[in-house]
Structure formats: C-alpha cells, structure tokens
Amino acid sequence: MALTRLIELLERLDEAHQQMLELAATKKDAIMDNKVEGIVEILNRESKLMKLTGQLEEQRAEAAYAFLQGVGIRSNLNLNLTELSRLVFDPDDKSRLLHIQRKLSDTLQSLKKANELNQKLIEQSLTFIDYSLDILVGRPNQEITYHHPSEKSGGISRPGLFDARG
Predict the structure, then answer these.
(1) pTM of model > 0.85
(2) Sequence-separated (6 or more) residues with CB below 8 Å from residue 77
(3) Rounded to a whole number, what is the distance in angstroms from the first to the last CA of the chain?
(4) Cβ atoms within 10 A of the Cβ of 84, count?
(5) Backbone angles phi, psi at 24, to 5 degrees
(6) pLDDT band at 153 (very low <50, low <70, confident <90, very high)
(7) What angle do CA 47, 77, 81 make, to 5 degrees?
(8) Are 31 and 126 in contact, with CB atoms under 8 Å apart?
(9) How far is CA 54 from CA 19, 47, 123, in A?
(10) Residues 73-112: pLDDT tens digits?
(11) Angle between helical axes of 91-137 and 2-32 (0-180°, round to 10)
(12) Which phi and psi angles does 73 have, rounded to 5°?
C-alpha cells in the first residue's frame, strides 16, 4: 500500500513538472515576443506550481519513509529511487517504480534545458536593452590616457551622465 502511494505521488510530481515544462515553452514565446505582462502571469503560475511541487515532495518523502517501515527498515534513510527499487520484490511494482523514475528524470532534464534556454534569452534581451540605451544616451567621450582633472582640453568637457557636484 505504501509503495502504491509513493508511485502515485511520483506520478503527480511528474504531472506538475510537465505543467512547468509547458509553462517554460509559453514563457519562451513570451520572452521572444517581448510580452512582459505574459511573463509576469507565467511567473505567478510557476510560483503556484512550485508550492505544489514542494508539498508533493514532502508527501513523497513521508511515503518513502512509510514504505521503508513497511519492509522492516526502521531508520530514516534518504534513499534514491534506484536504491528503493532494490527493496521491492514484486516484479510489476518494481517495473512501475523504475518506469516512473525514468519518466520523471526525463521530464526534469527537459525542464532544465528549457529553463537554461529561457535564461539565455533573457540575458540576450537585457544585453540588447543595455546596448540600445548606450546608443540612445551615448557614452561620454573619454580619452584612454589619464589626465588630471585640472588640465582641461580646449573644448567643452562633458562630465558624464550625472554631475554629482551640482
């Protein structure tokens, strides 16, 4: 019974991560289309899914502990699914457990790749914005070599974007 509960929780975790993967694809499109409101909405939905994932993860840990107690292990070991599968003797249950492990692992790898891509897209967008601002505002023309501030050249000196001295 505890194993069935564990497998059900792993399946629910996979479903939550699949939803996050779908949101990552939607977020990629929103980033590429520069839809800030859409990105904010997606971030809110991701936040809710993260809370759900945290709750499911706690329940999974409890179910794993209950399974360990059910097979006679009284300590609170932190075993991964491969190690846990060695304690399952029914071939069908073992197969189901290993299947959901592979499925969850694949989903997490896809989610990691999607998040890395979105991160790169955001970095590129920020770089483009910074470049655009530099073009619009312009950088002060400064010479490469050092000159003492009292040595003014013949032209009008430009102190920079902000004159802190008033």
Answers:
(1) no
(2) 68
(3) 75
(4) 19
(5) -65, -40
(6) low
(7) 60
(8) no
(9) 15, 11, 28
(10) 777 777 788 888 888 888 899 999 999 999 999 999 999 9
(11) 20
(12) -100, 115
**Token code pair at residue 122:** 């955001």
* 96 CB neighbour count, 10 Å cutoff: 18
- Helix (H), strand (E) at residue 21: helix 2-32
**111 CB-near residues (< 8 Å, 6+ apart):** 17, 20, 21, 24
Q: In the numeric block, which tokens belong to residue 101?
A: 């492990």
Best mean pLDDT range from 10-14, 92-96, 132-136, 149-153: 10-14
Q: How many CB atoms lie within 10 A of CB 88?
A: 18
Beta strands in the chain (DSSP E): none
- Sign (positive or negative) of CA dihedral 60, 65, 70, 71: positive
Whose tokens are 């629910």? That residue is 12
Q: Is 15 helix (H, G, I), strand (E, B) or coil?
A: helix
The CA distance from 112 to 71, in Å, is 34
